[in-house]
Amino acid sequence: MADIAMCLKRGRMAPALVMNRFTKVKVCRRSLQVGRALKGEDKSDKAASDSFANGSNATYIDRLYRKWVKDPNSVDETWHNYFAGKRHTIKQDQQTRRRKWEPTAAGQSGASTKAAPKADWKYIDDHLAVQSIIRAYQTRGHLAADLDPLGIVGPTGHSLSSDDKKRQATKAVLRQHYSYAFNDLNALFKLPKTTSIGGDEKFLPLTEILDRLERAYCSHIGVEYMMITSVVKSEWIRKHFEVPGIVSFTAEEKKLILERLTRSTGFENFLAKKFSSEKRFGLEGCDSMIPIMKEIIDQSSRLGVKSVHIGMAHRGRLNVLSNVCRKPLSELLSQFNVISASDWGSGDVKYHLGTFTKRYNRQTKRPVRITVVANPSHLEFVNPVVLGKTRAEMYRRGDYQGNKVLPVLIHGDASFCGQGIVFESIHLSDLPEYTTHGTIHVVINNQVGFTTDPRYSRSSRYCTDVARVVNAPIFHVNADDPEACVYCARVAAKWRAKFHKDVVIDIVGYRRNGHNEADEPAYTQPLMYQRIRKLKPCTLKYAEKLVNDGVIKMEEYDAMNAKYEKICNDAFEESKKIKTFKNSLWLDSPWPGYFQGRDRFKMCPTGVNIKVLMYIGKWFSSPPPPEISFTVHKGIMRILSIRKKLVQDKVADWALGEAFAIGSLVKDGIHVRLSGQDVERGTFGHRHHVLHDQTKDKSKFNILQHLYPDQAPYDVCNSSLSECAVMGFDLGYSMAHPSMLVIWEAQFGDFANTAQAIIDQFLASGETKWVRQSGLVLFLPHSMEGMGPEHSSGRIERFLQLSNDDPDTFPIMCDADYEVRQLLKCNWIVTNLSTPANLFHALRRQVALSFRKPMINFSPKSLLRHPAARSPFRDFNECSSFQRIIPDKGKASYNPESVEQLILCSGKVYYDLFKEREDHDQEATTALVRVEQLCPFPFDLIYKQIELYPNANLYWVQEEHKNQGAWSYVQPRLDTVLIELQANERCFLYRGRPPNSASATGIKAHHKAEYNDLITSIFGNLTEANKCRMEEKMKSAKAKSLKEAEDSLSKAKLLKTKKNDNDPKGDNSDTPAKSKTNKEDSDPKGSNSDTPAKPKPQNNSDKTSSKEAPSPEKDPSPSTPPAAPTPPAASTKPAASKKPESSAMPQRKSTPSEPAGQPQLKAKKPNASSQNEKLAQKEIMPDGKRSQTRKQKHSKSAKDPMRAKSDKKQAKPSKRSTDESSSEDYW
Ligand SMILES: Cc1ncc(C[n+]2csc(CCOP(=O)(O)OP(=O)(O)O)c2C)c(N)n1
C-alpha cells in the first residue's frame, strides 16, 4: 500500500474494494439516528455516540441501516455483519449500563474486555480520512496556495503555476492524512455536508475530490476562514469558493477587468514617463488593486451602498484618486507642477491629500459618493479616522445597519502587521458605539516594507494575521491573476453586505520599482529584483491570456491603451494651464451650506435661560421616572440628592455644569457624543450619566438622553481600552458634520500621549494641511495632586507648543470681533478651566462658532467635588459668556494701586492659591487672575490686568514643573504684552516647581514639600498672627459643623420617631432604592406642561441602539420648561441683549441626510472697550517702541534693580487686611 502522497505523485491505483456500490446509494438527510439507535441511546445521550457515526457519514449509515432493518440481505455482507454485530453490542452495552453501579467481581468494567465488532473498518476509515482531508484543505489549503507571483513564498518543491492538474498540497496541508493509505484513488466517496466542492453531486471519486480541493484552496486564492466560529458564515464562504467553476467571468466582464487594469498600469506608466524624477509611490506589481476597488464599489452599489469612505497610505494613492474616485486628472497632474494655493493652508504633498467625489456608477447607474480621507505620512493612523467618519455618516443617514455607507481601508503589508493602530482599530469593529458594520480591508502586499523583508518585519505567518482576532475571513490572492482578484473583491463586498463584518483581501504581488521611484531596490533585495525584472507586467499577461482565449483581439487591447494614453495626454496639456489651485478642492469632508449666510466673526451667545437650567438640573438630579421601574443604586440616590440640593440652591458643581452644557445642546438639536474609557460613570465617579438597574442585567438609563421629546441624541460611549484608535475615531466622527459636539475624554490626561500621532498629525495640523475643520473636544484630566508621575499631567506644554499663535506679535484689537478672529486664526483652543460655568460656555461655544476648532481642555480631578469650584446659576444665564480670564474680584481689586503682587495662574492651582492667600492674610495685596483660555492667548485681557495693577510685582504661578505646564508658552507672550504696555521696568517671574523630567513625584512627602516651597515662594512663611487667625477660624468652623451635625442628628431622630409611628415594620434602607413615586422626586417637570421624551432603559445587548435615531425634523424650540424659582440676581457683567429661551445655538438642520445651511443667528456683539480702542490706536500708530523684541526686553529687565527688589519683597508677608468677607466671591 502506498501512502497518499505517493499515490498522488505516482498516480498508482489500488484495487477497488467496496466503493463502487456507493454510486447507487441515495442521500438521506437524517443524521446520527443510526448512531444513537445502534447504541440504544435516547436523544439526550449525545456524548456517547459512535466516533464514526456522526456528520454526513452517519446519514449514509442511517440509510443503510434502515434498509438493512427492512431486508437484511439488501446490504453488503460486511454491513450486515456490522449491523448484526452491533446489535449484539447494544445488548451488551445495555447490560453493562444496567450493571454500571454494581462492582464487578474483578473490580473492572466488563466493557474493556469486549472484542471489536465485525465491520469493514477500512471502508469506514477511508471515508473518515476523506473527510479529514477535505477539512485539511479548508483549514490549511491557503498554505499551499499559489499566491506569490514571484514564487518566493509558498510551498517548496511545487510548481508555481496552477494549471488545475498539479496538486500543491503538501505535508503542510494534509499533515496527518497524507500518510493514510487508500486502496483506490478512483473509488467513489460520499461528500460530507461540510463541503460544496461537489456542486450538485453528492459522490465523487477521490481523485476528483482532491483536484477540486486543490482548485478551490490551492490555486491563486488562499482562503483563510476556518477560524470563524459561526457555522453559517463558514458555510457561506465555502459556497463562494468551493463550488466548481464559481470563479468565472463572462467575456464582457473580462474585458472590463482588462480595461480597468489598462488604466491602472497606464496611469503609472504615464506618470513615469512625464515625471520620471517625481515620487508617486507607484502601484506597479499590484496593479490589480484598481480593478479590485472598482469591483468593491460596483458590487456594493448594487447591494445598496451610497457612500464609500476610503482610507489609505501613499502606495497607489494617486491611481485611486484618478481611477477610482475620478478626481479630474488635470487637477491631479497639476500637483506635479510648481503652483501655489490660492486659498489658505500650508497644504500637503499630493499623495496625502484627500478628495470627495459624487458620481454615477457606470455599472449600476446609481449615484455613489466616494471619499478618500486625507492622511499623514504616518502609516495606518488614518484608519480610525475613516471609521469614525463612516460611523458619523451612518448616523446622519439613519443607516443603522451599515447598508448605505461603507468603509474601505487600504493597507501596506509591512504597516498592516507592524502598526499597533491597526489592531486597535480592528478591535472597534464590533463595539456597539464604534462599529461601522464591517470594513473591507485591502492589503497591497508587495512583500517588502521600504527595504525590509517580511521575515525581519513580522513574526506572524501572514501580514494579515491581525485581522484573525475579529474572525474576519481573509482572502489571499495572487496579484497577477486579475480574475481571482476581482472575484475576491466581489465576495468581500457580498460578505460585508450580508454579515456586516470585517473582511480582508490580501493582494500578494510585488513592487516593480523601489520604495519610491528614485530608490534603487536592488541594493537591499537583489534576488527579488532579478526576478521582478524578468516578470511581464500583469496587465500584458492578462491581455495575452484574453487574446489566446479569444475574448479580445490584440488590436482591441492596443486601442484600449491608446485611448487611455490620449486621456492622460489631454489632461496633461490641460494641467499646464492651471496656475493655482485651491486646498479646499482636496477637502475630504466638505460641509456645503452649513455655515452659509453666517458671519464667520459673529458668535451666538452661549448662555441659556435659568428655566432651562432648572429643568435640566431637576432631570439630572432625579432617578428614572417610576413608570419604567428602574432600581437605582443607593449610592447613586445619594449623589442625586446632593445634586438636587445644588439645583435648589442654584449652584452648579462640575458635573452639573457639564450636564447643563450637554443638556442644553441636545435641546438645541445638537447631537452630542462623549466617548472614552469609562466615561459613562466618569473616571472619578462625578458624572453618572448612565445609570444601571440594580436588578436587571444590561438595563441602563442615560439620563440626558431623555430630557426633551424632540431633543438630539446624546451618546455616551464607554470605549475599548485604547486612546489612539478611539481618539482617532472620534476625530473622524467630528469631521463628518459640524452640527454635533464630539468629546473624547482621557482616563487621565497622561494617557493621551499614546494617541500622539492623532494629536500631532490630525488635530494640531489637520486644518492647516488639509483645510479640514473639526470641533473635537479633548478632556484631559490634569493637576498635581500627589497621585504620582503618571496621573498628574495631560502635558499642557506639548499642546501649547503645538499652538500656532504668535508669541511675539501683539495682535491688532481694533475690531469688536477680536475674540472670534483670534479663535478663527488659531489651530486649536487650549483651556484650563476652573469653574463649571466656564466649562459650560466653552462647550457651547464649540457649536456657537461659525467654524469649528478642536478644543483641548485640561479638566480637573479634585475640583470635580471641590466645594469652591462651583458656579451660581447666574453664571450660565443669557447675560453670561465664556471668560477667557477670570479677574480678581475680591479685596485686591478694590484698591488695585496698593496691590503688591499680581499672580497669573491657570487651573486648579488657583484654588490652592486662593486658600493660601487667605491663610497668609494677603487678600488685599495679592491679586489672583485665572487664565482660563491659554490658547489663543488673551493678550487684550492680560494687558488690562497688568495695567490695572501698576505697582504689583508680576508672577506666573503654576503647580507644574518649570519645564512643563504653561510657563514656556506664556512667558514670551507676557513679555509681548509688557512691551506693548511699554512697561519696560516690569517683568513676569516664574513661581512653581523646579524643572523635572518626570511630571510629578510619586512620593507623598516630596509632593507636600514641593507644595510648601511653592506657597512659601509666593506668600512667604505663615506669621504667628496668621497662625492664630487660622486657628481661630478653624475653631469656629469646627464649632459650626458640630452644631450642624447636632442639628441634623436631632432632625433625623425626630424623623425616625415619626416614621416608626407610621411604619412599625421599620426601615428597609438596605435594599436598593427603587425609583421613587414621589412626584417631587420622580417628575422633574414638576407642574410644568413640558413632556419629556418617554424614557426607556437601554438594553446593552442591542448592538444598534435606538438612540441613534436622527434628529426629528422639528422646531427645536423647547416646550415650556418647569416653573423655576425666582431667577437669580442679574449678573454684574455687561449685559448682552437678552435672548429668548428658545435657543442660543444654531438651529437644527432640516433633514438628517442633507445638511442644510445654518441660519444666521443674532450674534452677541462684544463691546469694544475703550481700552481696546486705545490699544488699537496704538497698534496702528507707528510709535517705534513696538518693534522692541522680547530678547531686548529680557536683557533690560534682567538688569532692572526693581525686579531684584520685588523678588526680595515677595518673601515678606504683607500687612493683614481687616475685612475678611468678599461679596464678589462665587462661594
Ligand atoms: C508610522 C510610520 N513609520 C515609518 C514610516 C516610513 N515608511 C514609509 S513607507 C514605509 C514602508 C511601508 O511598507 P508597507 O506598509 O509594506 O507599504 P509599501 O510602501 O510597501 O506599499 C515606511 C517604513 C511611515 N511613513 N510611518
UniProtKB/TrEMBL annotation:
Task: Give the CC-aspect GO terms.
Answer: mitochondrion; oxoglutarate dehydrogenase complex
Bias kind Basic and acidic residues: ranges? 1058-1068, 1104-1116, 1175-1186, 1197-1210
List the Pfam families.
2-oxogl_dehyd_N, E1_dh, OxoGdeHyase_C, Transket_pyr
Pro residues bias: start-end ranges: 1118-1128
Q: Which residues form a coiled coil?
A: none
Q: State the Gene Ontology terms under molecular function.
A: metal ion binding; oxoglutarate dehydrogenase (succinyl-transferring) activity; thiamine pyrophosphate binding
**Alphabetized InterPro entries for the sequence:** 2-oxogl_dehyd_N, 2oxoglutarate_DH_E1, DH_E1, KGD_C_sf, ODO-1/KGD_C, THDP-binding, Transketolase-like_Pyr-bd
Principal place of residence: mitochondrion
Domain Transketolase-like pyrimidine-binding span(s) in chain numbering: 652-866
Composition skew (Polar residues), residue ranges: 1085-1103
Provide the residue span(s) of the region labelled Disordered.
Answer: 90-112, 1054-1227
Q: Where is the composition biased (Basic residues)?
A: 1187-1196
Gene3D superfamilies given for it? 3.40.50.12470, 3.40.50.970, Multifunctional 2-oxoglutarate metabolism enzyme, C-terminal domain, TPP helical domain
One GO BP: glycolytic process
Family under the similarity heading: Belongs to the alpha-ketoglutarate dehydrogenase family.
* Protein's name in the database: 2-oxoglutarate dehydrogenase, mitochondrial
Biological source species: Drosophila hydei (Fruit fly)
| Chain's gene name | LOC111602885
